Amino acid sequence: MSELLQEIEAQIAGVKTEVARENVGVVREIGDGVAKIEGLTGAMMNEMLDFGDGVMGLALNLEETEVGAV
Fold it and tell me: How far apart are CA 13 and CA 60, in angstroms?
């Protein structure tokens, strides 16, 4: 059992995580818990958005010129 545990721990230790900015937008308006963001042309419905400083959002309203996120 300890051999299996050691193998699992070794595999977990070898996992590499990378964060890359793929698309950057500008928050133009915030109100009622909704952020209106310009420049996220590649955003998809229900995509997690990183606003920085640990603040995350969820893309819900995809319009031609902006994205609405909560």
Answer: 35
